[in-house]
């Protein structure tokens, strides 16, 4: 098959959508398909050019300045339409999603869409709390309108499928969890010397244990709840350092919050790190924590498990089938007391036992199975279109 993947974010950006598309491109190519990616130019794109990576002129988005929006022109349109794709697979509900739909219509291609992001959780960036419920209703209605115009919809989890069904989406839907290269996160790939070097780079002192969060530093990730609980964790475990790897609009506010709580000396903001080395930063951790309730899948949980960390996360439907409490990780309630209790469990003997077997529980989420299931989705959509 000839496949076009269209996205508003792609490698070398570091986020779940970019990683998912990169993995899908690699695995489908390995399976003999011709796969092209169309995405905005981003920092570092010049060093990652391939014949099948089509980076498009872009500019920072006014609301989310750490994200770029592309401007497909006539030349890009010509390049894309001349490829005559069997499948156009969009991964955005905005600029590149519309561009992918245009290309599909031009070539009469089968049109697939993956709903990666629960947009009603992101309306804050536009409303800043004013009339936010109205904005959330608009986001739900837009998602319904968008998804009902595709041949098939891919949902990373059952949570996403249920949400879209509640929105009124009636297009055929498949649950296909995004895959990842589990092998690169194996704990045995990182020796003590490398782990020490990364810890030193991040300001971790000898003897400290690392509470780790990796990802975008933004409101929907709810890192402020972890920061709020952290002083009380320090009272019980003064050898713990909270290391936050990533960048985003909440970094300044969280830095100020750490200072106000009196824990600045025990918190490190590393800034963004290269995707190629992100496994090294997981390897320095002891416990991975997340209080986000906005994920559709949350690949960072699986990456942390594959790296041999005990994952402590606020329970969410996206974790069904991923984390079993007390076995492959620790799940907590939504309030501060429950999160603190979960973190205390994670830094106990129970957490160490979970970490010892965490990598085994991440194994089913590899990229090969992801590509096979996506390939089957494409074939099913093509067969239905022919009917």
What does this structure look like?
There is one protein chain. This protein is an alpha/beta fold and 387 residues long. The protein has 14 helices and 15 strands. The strands form 3 sheets. A 7-stranded parallel β-sheet has the order 3-2-1-6-7-8-9, with helices on both faces. Strands 12-11-10-13-14-15 form a 6-stranded parallel β-sheet, with helices on both faces. Strand 11, helix 9 and strand 12 form a beta-alpha-beta unit. Helix 1 packs across helix 14. The longest helix has 20 residues. The chain starts with a strand and ends with a helix. The model has no long low-confidence stretch (mean pLDDT 94).
Keywords, please?
387 residues; alpha/beta; six-stranded parallel beta sheet; 15 strands; 41% helix; globular
Strands, helices and their partners?
Elements: E1 2-6, H1 16-30, E2 34-40, E3 53-56, E4 58-60, E5 68-70, H2 74-82, E6 87-90, H3 95-107, E7 110-114, H4 124-127, H5 132-147, E8 152-155, H6 158-167, E9 173-175, H7 192-201, E10 209-214, H8 223-236, E11 240-245, H9 251-260, E12 267-271, H10 278-283, E13 287-290, H11 299-306, E14 310-314, E15 330-332, H12 336-346, H13 349-362, H14 367-386
Parallel strand pairs: 1-2, 1-6, 2-3, 6-7, 7-8, 8-9, 10-11, 10-13, 11-12, 13-14, 14-15
Antiparallel strand pairs: 4-5
Helix pairs in contact: 1-14, 2-3, 8-12, 11-13
């Amino acid at each position: 098959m000839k496949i076009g993947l269209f996205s508003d974010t792609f490698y070398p950006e570091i986020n779940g959508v970019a990683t998912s598309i990169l993995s899908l491109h690699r695995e489908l190519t390995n399976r003999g398909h011709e796969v092209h990616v169309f995405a905005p130019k981003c920092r570092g794109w010049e060093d990652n050019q391939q014949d099948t990576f089509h980076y498009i002129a872009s500019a920072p988005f006014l609301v989310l300045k750490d994200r770029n929006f592309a401007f497909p022109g006539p030349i890009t349109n010509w390049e894309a339409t001349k490829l005559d794709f069997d499948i156009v697979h969009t991964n955005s509900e905005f600029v590149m999603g519309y561009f992918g739909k245009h290309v599909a219509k031009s070539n009469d291609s089968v049109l697939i869409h993956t709903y990666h992001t629960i947009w009603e959780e992101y309306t804050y960036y536009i409303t800043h709390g004013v009339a936010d419920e109205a904005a959330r209703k608009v986001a739900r209605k837009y998602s319904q309108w968008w998804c009902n115009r595709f041949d098939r919809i891919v949902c990373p989890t059952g949570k996403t499928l249920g949400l879209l069904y509640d929105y009124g989406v009636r297009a055929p839907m498949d649950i296909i969890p995004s895959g990842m290269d589990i092998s690169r996160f194996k704990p045995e790939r990182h020796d003590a010397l490398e782990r020490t070097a990364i810890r030193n780079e991040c300001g971790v002192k000898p003897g400290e244990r690392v509470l780790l969060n990796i990802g975008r530093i933004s409101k929907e990730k709810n890192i402020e709840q972890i920061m709020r609980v952290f002083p009380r964790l320090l009272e019980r475990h003064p050898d713990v350092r909270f290391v936050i790897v990533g960048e985003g609009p909440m970094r300044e506010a969280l830095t100020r919050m750490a200072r106000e709580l009196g824990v600045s000396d025990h918190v490190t903001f590393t800034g963004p790190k290269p995707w190629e080395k992100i496994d090294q930063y997981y390897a320095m951790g002891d416990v991975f924590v997340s209080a986000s309730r906005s994920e559709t899948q949350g690949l960072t949980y699986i990456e942390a498990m594959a790296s041999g960390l005990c994952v402590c996360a606020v329970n969410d439907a996206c974790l069904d089938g991923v984390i079993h409490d007390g076995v492959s990780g620790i799940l907590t309630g939504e309030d501060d007391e429950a999160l603190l209790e979960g973190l205390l469990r994670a830094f106990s003997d129970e957490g160490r036992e979970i970490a010892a077997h965490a990598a085994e529980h991440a194994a089913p989420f590899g990229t090969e199975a992801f590509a096979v299931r996506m390939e089957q989705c494409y074939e099913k959509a093509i067969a239905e279109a022919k009917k």
